[in-house]
Amino acid sequence: MRHVIALDVGGTGMKAALAGPGGELLHQARRATGRERGPEAVVAGILDFAAELRAYGADRFGEPARAAGVAVPGIVDAEQGVAVYAANLGWRDVPLRGLLGERLGGIPVALGHDVRTGGLAEGRIGAGQGADRFLFVPLGTGIAGAIGIDGRVEAGAHGFAGEIGHVVVRPGGIACPCGQRGCLERFASASAVSQAWAEACGDPEADAADCAKAVESGDARALAVWRDAVDALADGLVTALTLLDPRVLIIGGGLAEAGETLFTPLRDAVRRRVTFQRLPEIVPAALGDTAGCLGAGLMAWDLLDTAAPSARADTATTTDTAATSATAPTADPTSTAPTAVTPRR
């Protein structure tokens, strides 16, 4: 069976999949990045994991993968295929697409940003399916964004499009590692809420999920922390929708797991702030932590769809394109039930 490799590299773990011609996930696996051993070990682990996945696919389906996609955090130069910088992985200027292409027998490889890859999947087959314009905003350790336009995700002229977490919503506020003060992610990310709630309740182990539970129980301290985060998030989102005019606003990440505890006040806060702007539909992400692998599969198939027939036959060509995400197989891979998706053709 024809299939592609999808890799989603996170700060602490990797997810991987083999995706079939209909986009379905034929096999999924996970592995730690091993970042405690240094950036060289992380890169070696990615290459080994991809090679194991290729071997597994060839054995199980009777032919090797036709293409691969990998999504990584941090700064990514998708055009050149270089993982420029990732603070949580410790690497700089890694020619990851070329290394993977060589390790995987010369098949086309796409490299891209993890959030944009997840946004691609959410836009095509998830919560934004059918929308010509969407904005995907995951609320995790930080806050990033993916701008969806007609089935693709806009990377920007320099690869920085969608960085909504560094919109200043509280001028002169908390210092951000980016060098500014008052950035959105310092107030409304899951990690920011965790820190604020830990300080408010006096428990250094408390996190955003604990804060959400306390909000549901009516705790006044939690309500204050939650309100501050929602207000900051609404300020940032209104700036984004003023500039981008999305039809659908998709909120994901750990904070979105609070469900209507987040979405009810957030929709109200955004509604209060808009004036001439058209209010988009504000919905939770639909794909969870499979978004990276699903997006990786979609992007890998896109490489084959856009390649000339001669290039498809000659898999020694490595194709430039935006990236996909996945995680590679374990030494003892375990298949899961296929997840059906429909790639854009």
What features would you describe in this structure?
There is one protein chain. With 345 residues, this protein is α/β, with parallel strands linked by helices. Helix content is 37%, strand content 19%. It has helices at 39-61, 96-103, 114-125, 185-188, 190-201, 208-216, 220-244, 260-273, 291-306, 309-313, and strands at residues 4-9, 13-19, 25-32, 68-72, 75-77, 82-86, 91-94, 109-113, 133-138, 146-149, 152-154, 248-252, 281-284. The protein has a 5-stranded mixed sheet with strand order 3-2-1-4-8, sandwiched between helices. The protein has a 5-stranded mixed sheet with strand order 11-10-9-12-13, with helices on one face. Strand 9 (133-138) and strand 10 form a beta hairpin. Helix 6 crosses helix 7 (220-244). The longest helix is centred in the last third of the chain and has 25 residues, at 220-244. The protein is globular, with a radius of gyration of 20 Å. Residues 308-345 have low confidence and may be disordered.
Write the layout of secondary structure elements.
Blueprint: E1 4-9, E2 13-19, E3 25-32, H1 39-61, E4 68-72, E5 75-77, E6 82-86, E7 91-94, H2 96-103, E8 109-113, H3 114-125, E9 133-138, E10 146-149, E11 152-154, H4 185-188, H5 190-201, H6 208-216, H7 220-244, E12 248-252, H8 260-273, E13 281-284, H9 291-306, H10 309-313
Parallel strand pairs: 1-4, 4-8, 9-12, 12-13
Antiparallel strand pairs: 1-2, 2-3, 5-6, 6-7, 9-10, 10-11
Helix pairs in contact: 1-2, 3-9, 5-6, 5-7, 6-7, 7-8
